[in-house]
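Below is our example:
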Amino acid sequence: MFRARSRQSDKLESAIRRALGDPAWLQGLRIREGGVVTLVLEADPENMEESETRRVEAEARALNVKGVNEVHAMLTAERQPGAHTHEAHAPQETPPQAGAQRVRKGARLSDEAVSQGQPGQPTTDKIPGISRILVVASAKGGVGKSTVAVNLAASFAKLGLKTGLLDADIYGPSAPTMLGTGDAQPATDRNGKLIPVEAHGIHSLSIGYLSDPDAPMIWRGPIVMSAITQMLNDAAWGTPEDPLDLLIIDTPPGTGDAQLTIAQRVPVTAAVLVTTPQEVALSDVRRGAAMFAKTAVPVLGIIETMSWFEDPAGNRHYLMGEGGGQKTADTLGLPLLGQLPMLTEIREGGDTGKPAAAGEGEASKRFHEIARSVALNLDSLQTKTPPKIIFED
């Protein structure tokens, strides 16, 4: 048994090295039980941003190898004797092509980043009954991603679109609370498919409907994806004659296996990224943009939450920083789709199960403006020439 496990580990290590290209900057590779992989990568102390890009890309490539369930990549600035610097192997700069879009290295995307306007994975077929799929994502938790997903869905429904919401945040399903459907129990149709719960014009499914709300979800990646796949494919979202106009997927925070699998195996039309203005959130957003770029999912833009607080006198207070969302959008070459201030009606709407976007206040207007921008960008994907991402110092 020991020899069998050893040969299996050797095969997995060889597969990972092939996926990484067996580079000289890979200083160590360890495989633990359960397909948990640790990578030790050489960092360039003079170019830590490029090293961080290399780390994120190495994690993504290793995670795509069959048999790998979890990847941890670490950077070390300790050089081996005789090691070459990154600059010694830097490729010669090539002139930008016509229509290219320049992005500074601060975007943390690698030279192999694909264009932002390509369709999803070519091997993935469309899901019957769903016209388009929009992913709402953030590479960091606590930035209001689920609030944006629910209120965007409410805005689209209010605009007359047949809208669905899949709460794929398995470990923290909040859609049932925000929609006021916490006690709902989805039924099945005569074909055995789950019937989404309808509220505020939104057809929704969530693991929160199918599990004890107080029970922790102690699930590993494969089980998580199995649950998401079932809610996506084994549900009566629509029919070929009467499909959903748009399904919004509220993804888990981060850029782990669940997020990568959604980006790679689900026919995603496009994604939007949610962030707060401070740098601790924006650095993760750049990693999220890198993940979607590498999986050929177009990113429509960035939505900034908690942008400011306005006191009774009308003075704005930028409690989370100012201008971070716009700066990151400019760096990535993406539009800033909208800014959402700290409004009591947004918080109260989420707590009481009445999304602010379904009402008539200031928050509703802001969410509707963002929804219109998203809808226009979704429509333009079929006619717009995708921009090329070119890196410059």
